[in-house]
């Protein structure tokens, strides 16, 4: 069974669910894990861990029965009657539990986020400068009033998908973009690349891909690659390990 966690009816969740079903793969979408009857149990012992997932139908899936997981962050919702600090604490605890669970799964997980990104989503482009420049990529913000064409690009495993209209010369960045994603331990990552005076610059890094920035044809390519990785018909590139430095 492939689980799509926190896919709340958005275009990517819909396309993934439909694509997996059309190919005959057993799949279960869980729109919002924290507000859904589905329950995940995770038992951690000294020498092993075991997990199970009880769906809202009552069916129970053991960790051996989970063949792949696609996971997104759940948005924070303040429950009625809860103080903001209490609601924030409960949300953080649930996020930590989900992070621990996906980290321990042996099946393909997209994405198995590092703690640095899972708990503190990055809002500043400048945060990426040291990492980006290590891979021969230029970082540069678009200043107010500048009319510079920008193109979304997705890295899925070792595949790079440029949206339609992107200059063909941008493809020389492909290897650097893939290596950058690998250094973060991410299988699926989005960028925005600006064509600044003939020199491509990274003006956006999105560890939690939006997908809806792409045209229909590009979305199909992205979905096909994700399905291949989730079902094991494609192998992801080697990812960073704990000994790799962050910068």
Question: Which key phrases capture this entry?
Answer:
single chain, alpha/beta, D-amino Acid Aminotransferase, Chain A, domain 1, 2 domains, 4-stranded parallel beta sheet, 4-stranded antiparallel beta sheet, 28% helix, 23% strand
Fold and architecture overview:
A hairpin with a 2-residue loop joins β8 and β9. It contains 6 helices and 11 strands. α1 (11-22) packs across α6 (216-230). Helices cover 28% and strands 23% of the residues. The chain has a 4-stranded parallel beta sheet with strand order 2-1-6-7, with helices on one face. It is an alpha/beta fold and 247 residues long.
Q: What fraction of residues sit in β-strands?
A: 15-25%
| Major sheet | 4 strands, parallel
Structural class: alpha/beta
Rg over alpha carbons:
19 Å
Distance between the termini: 37 Å
Q: Count the strands?
A: 11
For this structure, what is the CATH class of the largest domain? Answer: Alpha Beta
CATH topology-level fold name of the largest domain: D-amino Acid Aminotransferase, Chain A, domain 1
* Corresponding CATH architecture of the largest domain: 2-Layer Sandwich
What order do the helices and strands follow?
EHEEEEEHEHHEEHEEH
How many domains, in number, for the residues?
2
Secondary structure: helix percent: 25-40%
Overall pLDDT: 81
Shape: globular
For the biggest β-sheet, the strand order reads 2-1-6-7
Which residue ranges are poorly predicted, with pLDDT under 50 across at least 5 consecutive positions? Answer: 238-247
The total count of helices amounts to: 6
């Amino acid at each position: 069974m492939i689980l799509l966690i926190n896919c709340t009816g958005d275009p990517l969740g819909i396309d993934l669910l439909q694509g997996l079903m059309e190919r005959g793969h057993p799949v279960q979408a869980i729109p919002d894990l924290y507000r859904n009857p589905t329950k995940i149990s995770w038992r951690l012992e000294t020498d092993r861990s075991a997990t199970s997932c009880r769906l809202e139908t009552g069916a129970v899936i053991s960790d051996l029965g989970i063949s792949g997981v696609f996971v997104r962050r759940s948005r924070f919702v303040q429950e009625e009657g809860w103080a903001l600090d209490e609601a924030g604490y409960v949300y953080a605890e649930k996020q930590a539990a989900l992070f621990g669970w996906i980290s321990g799964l042996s099946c393909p997980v997209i994405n198995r986020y590092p703690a640095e990104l899972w708990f503190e989503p990055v809002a500043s482009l400048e945060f990426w400068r040291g990492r980006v420049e290590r891979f021969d990529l230029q970082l540069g913000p678009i200043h107010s009033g500048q009319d510079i064409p920008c193109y979304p690009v997705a890295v899925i495993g070792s595949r790079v998908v440029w949206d339609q209209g992107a200059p063909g010369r941008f493809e020389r960045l492909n290897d650097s973009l893939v290596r950058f994603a690998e250094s973060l331990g991410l299988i699926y990552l989005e960028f925005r690349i600006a064509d600044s005076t003939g020199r491509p610059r990274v003006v956006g890094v999105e560890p939690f891909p939006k997908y809806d920035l792409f045209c229909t044809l590009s979305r199909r390519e992205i979905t096909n690659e994700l399905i291949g990785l989730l079902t094991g018909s494609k192998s992801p590139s080697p990812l960073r390990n704990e000994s790799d430095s962050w910068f």
